[in-house]
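[step 3/7] fold_predict: job queued, chain A
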Amino acid sequence: MRTFDLAPLYRSTVGFDRLFSMLDGFDNAAPGYPPYNIERTGENDYRISVAVAGFGEKDLSIEAKENTLTIKGDKSKEDTSKGEVLYQGIAARAFERVFQLADHVQVKGATIENGLLHVDLVREIPEAKKPRQIPIGNGKPTLVEAQAA
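[step 4/7] structure written:
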């Protein structure tokens, strides 16, 4: 595997700290547990589906803070008086998955269905950030200038 030295870029850039932190984090990427899917469900709608077999609502927590979505699972030790477990193939270990969200992406809600935790996201770009057409004038006041006057 190749490794890249980003130190020269740190010295010559300003304001890209978050980008470099993300790139540095790829080396320490979390293992594949639990597996997840990210899907686009509409033009501005997304869904993250995490396989959480064996976890209930009380065992999971979802936190959205700034541009980070954190999903944690901690299976509480239950009384196994029902019987002795001979083989445990369903993992019930604690986990933490962190997703970096783009600007203006908000969490709409979350549901558990058939062993999958679905977190629905929407990208809502404010009107001030959306592109707009600028009329070209020919020396006469344009509609925008006439309204401002």
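[step 5/7] annotate
Helices lie at 7-12, 17-25, 143-148.
The longest helix spans residues 17-25.
exit 0
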